[in-house]
């Protein structure tokens, strides 16, 4: 019976989506009324179904059956700054069944160091100081609170961040708060005081979504593993980009000074290798729950990889999504901005760094990142000419699933 219901709901979503077109084609009012009736009945069924789900949440086995038939997922897009995650996040987050939260750990991460405190709606404050452990627990808790749609437990800085405009799921809430004026300190308290009245917009959008997606660049695989252990719905999309592209882009972004490339490349590549290795050691526990992807592959085959990404979290997609992905990657729309997801020609944008970077800088990065570069199937460049000859691909082979063995042997 459950399967039948879900099937009819699916049909229903499709019908709703295409209803505008149908009207144009001249379908009669009767058909529309019937559709509305179908929507209403399905909504009631879904409501009772969700009540039932809540009451059985602690019964093992049964729960799993419900979960898989409802195909709910808590997806962590785990990646590193300037790795193409805005694009991948926007692509998945555009689906109407996805609740997407853009970088909810930004504020907690900035509070690490003690310059600012995290402030909560209940009036309490948290000074993270230099305490990495507290940051670790706070970030696990934040992600878990989002997956459970408990936004009132997040810190006020996160709840008033302009990141809320970056996702269609949180945009209505941002507009309700009028967050764009939050930098104006005279308005800050007023905006904060409006949070409780706007919060239901977040909560209901979250509860309605089958897939909850968070994009994080401040957390790492050990936090993700912790969440996978405590929550069977959690899946991880581990997005990796050529470290040379990441580091060149970060430098242009002003993330580190001219002479910082040595230290930054070392830190980044050690972190990515550690994340891969952590997962590799536990992979038998998490079969089918972690997907490692290269950004370059998504750029090369956005339609195919996009379909696989949606499949990873059991989302149905229609042709309009293929259209959207094409618009975001190759349709020739002007590149939005530095952190915007739209690319005029995604291949051109993805490899711009090869024309801009000096060979000296690239060689320094390669020196620190050789293991990762080899492991993920990127090509090491041996000269200025190789670097700027775009016909020589920077990705020269697929990364073999057996690459995991290499890590274990090390
Ligand atoms: C947080 O604690 C540290 C160390 O105790 C202190 O130096 C810092 O000023 C505190 N930060 C705030 C914002 O109170
Ligand atoms: C206030 O909320 C925060 C975040 O949920 C929680 O960690 C803290 O313990 C709460 N403080 C009080 C006094 O209830
Ligand atoms: C947002 O706040 C600014 C500054 O107070 C105000 O000028 C503007 O009208 C507000 N917008 C909305 C939609 O309330
Ligand atoms: C893609 O772009 C075309 C041309 O501007 C537009 O007509 C179409 O609606 C867009 N499709 C989506 C899904 O955004
Ligand atoms: C994007 O740019 C690449 C490299 O210049 C080119 O080969 C490809 O045809 C372009 N794609 C589209 C759809 O314009």
From TrEMBL:
<dbReference type="Pfam" id="PF13469">
    <property type="entry name" value="Sulfotransfer_3"/>
</dbReference>
<protein>
    <submittedName>
        <fullName>Carbohydrate sulfotransferase 5-like</fullName>
    </submittedName>
</protein>
<feature type="transmembrane region" description="Helical">
    <location>
        <begin position="25"/>
        <end position="49"/>
    </location>
</feature>
<dbReference type="InterPro" id="IPR027417">
    <property type="entry name" value="P-loop_NTPase"/>
</dbReference>
<keyword id="KW-1133">Transmembrane helix</keyword>
<dbReference type="InterPro" id="IPR051135">
    <property type="entry name" value="Gal/GlcNAc/GalNAc_ST"/>
</dbReference>
<dbReference type="GO" id="GO:0001517">
    <property type="term" value="F:N-acetylglucosamine 6-O-sulfotransferase activity"/>
</dbReference>
<keyword id="KW-0472">Membrane</keyword>
<dbReference type="GO" id="GO:0006044">
    <property type="term" value="P:N-acetylglucosamine metabolic process"/>
</dbReference>
<dbReference type="GO" id="GO:0006790">
    <property type="term" value="P:sulfur compound metabolic process"/>
</dbReference>
<keyword id="KW-0812">Transmembrane</keyword>
